[in-house]
Design brief:
The chain has five helices and six strands, in the order H-H-H-H-E-E-H-E-E-E-E. It has 216 residues and is α+β, with helices and mostly antiparallel strands.
Length: 216
């Protein structure tokens, strides 16, 4: 009789929802474990769907992923406009051109550039003044046109203002330079331009430029 009462009492404790020895108390990790197992199953299923539905971009070789810059004006055409020559011609290609208004050009910065052995031997960095000079040459491509009335023999870099260098330019970078004409005073032969230079889409140099022009 005593054994029967004990068994009934134990049974009532295990099945009572108000008892401190309820099913959740005796096995505190049972339900969370089941939830975790269910979540893992969901993650595995979603991972399988994602992997099978997304194309593998690695199938395309990296050398075929990125198109080259367009060529609006090559180095030979640049040399016909600018009087600069090695080692001071700092524009390799024009990729956008609106004569008398704006131009976008590139300078491929390589370890073979003659300024790197001295700036600096242990850390090759393109001098800021040469970035400014390269941008001024792009400005020359804009201004040395019949539409503007510039003269190759009487065109000078007259001044610079508000220049800021944002990041270093190193060997291996491609310097992309945009120059826009802001104001032209033909009476005085002065042109004001704004320029920005980029590497990888980030501004590395910017400033305002003054160009002095003359006529033949």
């Amino acid at each position: 009789m005593a054994s029967t009462v004990f068994s009934q009492s134990l049974f009532s404790l295990q099945t009572s929802s108000t008892s401190p020895l309820s099913n959740n108390t005796i096995f505190p990790f049972k339900q969370p474990f089941l939830h975790l197992k269910s979540d893992i199953t969901k993650i595995r299923r979603s991972s399988v769907v994602t992997c099978t539905s997304t194309p593998d971009s690695s199938d395309t070789p990296i050398e075929l992923k990125y198109p080259a810059y367009p060529t609006v004006m090559d180095i030979n055409q640049i040399r016909e406009i600018l009087p600069h020559r090695f080692p001071f011609l700092l524009v390799d290609r024009v990729i956008e051109y609106n004569p008398g208004v704006s131009a976008v050009a590139i300078k491929n910065v390589t370890i073979n550039d003659n300024f790197f052995p001295g700036h600096f031997p242990e850390r090759p960095i393109m001098p800021g003044v040469l970035m400014v000079e390269a941008m001024a040459q792009v400005g020359g491509l804009v201004m040395l046109q019949p539409e503007v009335g510039g003269s190759r023999d009487k065109f000078f870099f007259a001044g610079v203002d508000k220049v800021r260098f944002r990041k270093p330019v190193i060997a291996g970078d491609t310097l992309v330079m945009r120059m826009n004409l802001v104001k032209l005073q033909k009476r005085f032969g002065i042109a004001k331009m704004e320029g920005k230079a980029y590497v990888g889409g980030e501004v590395v140099c910017e400033g305002e430029f003054l160009m002095a022009m003359g006529s033949d």
